[in-house]
Design brief:
- The chain has 551 residues and is α/β, with parallel strands linked by helices.
- It is 34% helix and 20% strand.
- Helix 14 crosses helix 17.
- It is built from 19 helices and 23 strands.
- It has three domains: 79 residues, Urease, subunit C, domain 1 (Roll); 105 residues, Diaminopimelate Epimerase, Chain A, domain 1 (Roll); 324 residues, Metal-dependent hydrolases (TIM Barrel, Alpha-Beta Barrel).
- Strands 7-14-15-16-17-18-19-20 form an eight-stranded parallel beta sheet. A six-stranded mixed beta sheet has the order 8-9-10-11-13-12. A five-stranded mixed beta sheet has the order 2-6-21-22-23, covered by helices on one side.
């Protein structure tokens, strides 16, 4: 009680100290969740917030904050709604998402017939260009992989390459295979697989690195097309309360963001990550120009250990339950990958590596341990992207060794429909192990992996808190022991994500002095029953006190 009184007095004191200058913007009449790590997280009496010059200048009661009203102050009535810090998506394929918004939409195609119809419809509307995008899910129609003969009759001479939702497998029609030079005599590339019929002919399905055989012949988009994709992606992000994205992208993506930033037209914050193989180029950019600013930052590198569960290419110790001939595959030569990690870390860069299977995660934790030993102590913030299937020992290590698990909670309610047939119930007990990781002291961070899953943190919070699978088969939650509470999920989308992108000093909470990046929600997400969270909507998104989206 004494601590609570002290907090409220301090909050009112901030308003008093700021009263010499009026606020540019005041939000009042609501419920302010300032976020973790602040004395103000006691929350009682925090109903209003004031902004000046893009920063939070006071948080407190309506009466204290309204005292900062001046002739030019804009007031936003909250009418009891909940305010939270700007939501951060820690793992996106941001520009790819922008392009996907204009591509063929296959995410909810629930039958082969519907899959074929949509491809044919898109080809008819775009006969002169490659048909890409898709994000299909073969589990919706029972698990049979699509084949090129499904779509050849509706695509003709138009090349088609549509990817599975996880990005680790794609379907090419016959025209695309011809353009890529793929035939029965084409060998599987390292880190990839060409799926074949019994007589050796390609079915059109290409896994992991085999996809590059087609991707290299797809004409690259123009700068203008990239700019349009960025605008579409930004609109989508802001409508879902996302104020900062980490883009697992490319140098072309970074160039697109820099063009927009130079024009003053980058309306969302971006942490732009480039391939780990190019670490020397990034090291030179950082040496020459620094790491960007609070609107656009760089300095991060991304690589892959393995593939995905849905494509049976995640790397496990034990074989797949439904594909006993495989334990998954290594996407990148581990000797080369280890060298890149150690050298990039020695250069002071931020290393993030995709690992999904339990063996892949253990290998990566060992490699990070070796890099720390070789390169000495520093604030390095190693990340494992996905950290999806973990051994009990890996869960303990993620907490003890300070490695950040960068996870995507929506995947749990999606994959949970079919994951047990892939790897059995026992391995699923530590799949998307949110509760165990929090309990181990790991700094869990959340994202979407958009376009693999929706870039919608509210749906991610719902997934982490309920673990109710999309098919409705688990009303009590799939592996319910791994559920977390709403504040923990918000922590993973705010303060922890700010830390994971080196922005915790200016973002992640609504503390005085930090940027006024915030979201107004239609309902009080901290008070409603968990099963109703999926119905909550973003009413308003602000970045630096500027309203960038309003519903």
């Amino acid at each position: 009680m004494l601590r609570l009184i002290a907090v409220l007095v301090w909050g009112m004191g901030m308003a008093t100290q700021a009263s010499a200058q009026t606020a540019d913007l005041i939000l009042a009449g609501g419920r302010i969740w300032t976020g973790p790590g602040s004395l103000l997280t006691a929350r009682e009496g925090l109903t209003a917030l004031a902004v000046r010059s893009g920063r939070v200048v006071a948080v407190g009661s309506d009466s204290a904050i309204l005292a900062l009203t001046g002739a030019g102050t804009r007031r936003v009535p909250l009418n009891g709604r909940r305010v939270v810090p700007g939501l951060i998506d820690n793992h996106t394929h941001f520009l790819a998402g922008g392009f996907t918004l204009a591509g063929v939409q296959l995410r909810d195609a629930a039958t082969p017939q519907e899959f074929i119809r949509r491809v044919g419809q898109h080809v008819a509307a775009n006969p002169e260009s490659w048909v890409v995008g898709g994000t299909w899910d073969h589990e919706l129609w029972g698990g049979d992989l699509p084949r090129r003969d499904w779509i050849d009759s509706v695509s003709g001479a138009t090349p088609v390459f549509v990817q599975r939702l996880d990005g680790h497998m794609g379907l090419a029609n016959s025209r695309a295979l011809v353009l890529a030079g793929i035939s029965s005599g084409t060998a599987d590339p390292p880190g990839g697989a060409i799926v074949r019929t019994p007589n050796g002919d390609p079915t059109g399905i290409l896994k992991d690195e085999a996809q590059s055989l087609v991707e290299r012949v797809i004409p690259p988009p123009s700068g203008a097309e990239r700019d349009r994709a960025l605008r579409a992606a930004v609109d989508y992000a802001l409508a879902h309360g996302v104020t900062l994205v980490t883009d697992m992208g490319s140098w072309d993506n970074l160039a697109t963001y820099r063009r927009a930033h130079a024009r003053g037209d980058l309306r969302v914050r971006v942490y732009s990550v480039v391939p780990l193989a190019s670490w020397q180029r990034l090291a030179e950019l950082v040496r020459r120009e620094g790491r960007g600013d609070d609107r656009l930052a760089w300095g991060g590198l991304k690589a892959f250990v393995d593939g995905s569960l849905g494509s049976t290419t995640a790397w496990f110790y034990q074989p797949y339950a439904d594909a006993s001939e495989t334990r998954g595959l290594v996407v990148t030569d581990t000797t080369q990958l280890r060298r890149w990690i150690v050298d990039a870390d020695a250069a002071g860069l931020h290393v993030m590596v995709h690992a999904i299977g339990d063996r892949a995660n253990d290998w990566l934790l060992d490699t990070y341990r070796d890099a720390r030993s070789l390169n000495g102590l520093r604030d390095r913030r190693f990340r494992i992207e996905h950290a999806q299937h973990l051994t009990a020992a890996a869960i303990r290590r993620l907490g003890a060794e300070g490695v950040t698990p960068s996870m995507q909670p929506y995947h749990a309610i999606d994959d949970g429909r079919w994951a047990e047939k892939r790897i059995g119930r026992e391995r699923c007990e530590t799949t998307y192990a949110f509760r165990s990781l929090f309990d181990a002291g790991a700094r869990v961070t959340f994202g979407s992996d958009w376009t693999v899953a929706p870039m919608d943190p509210i749906q991610g919070i719902y997934a982490a808190v309920t673990r109710r699978t999309l098919d409705g088969a688990n009303p009590g939650g799939w592996v319910p022991s791994q559920r977390i509470n709403v504040e923990e999920a918000l922590l993973a989308y705010t303060a922890n994500n700010a830390y994971a992108s080196y922005r915790e000093n200016v973002l992640g909470t609504l503390d005085v002095g930090k940027y006024a990046d915030l979201v107004v929600l239609s309902e009080d997400i901290l008070a409603i029953p968990p099963e109703e969270i999926s119905q909550v909507r973003v009413d308003m998104t602000m970045i630096e006190g500027e309203i960038v989206f309003e519903r």
